[in-house]
Amino acid sequence: MAGRRIFDEQDARRCLAAAKAARGSLAEWARTHGIDGRSLNAWRVNLSRRGVPRARALAPRLIELVPATPPSSSAVRYVLRVGGVEFEVGDDFNEVGLRRLVTLLKSC
Description:
The chain is mainly alpha-helical. The protein contains 4 helices and 2 strands; from the N terminus they run αααββα. The chain has helices at residues 9-22, 26-32, 37-51, 95-107; strands at residues 77-82, 85-90. Strands 1-2 form a two-stranded antiparallel ribbon. A hairpin with a 2-residue loop joins strand 1 and strand 2 (85-90). The longest helix has 15 residues, at 37-51. The protein is rod-shaped and about 110 Å long.
């Protein structure tokens, strides 16, 4: 005779905890207590699968792609002539540096 089936998750957890505490095999415990061993084992397998986290899909990330301007083969140069002083800068010269130099030239 197979024994009684497990009613629900709470019943399954209670039986599995008792079987584990008895330190015997699950089949022996089920037979001794009149429980259907196949039903108890099916609950054990299903509950163990619930405890295993599924691999989560990675959340999509937004990566902004900005086209880079290729370096020009002919570098643009700017020449500033004030009085007898000549100053030459390229496109890569920053505004702060240019202000300092113009201020310096004004003081001359």
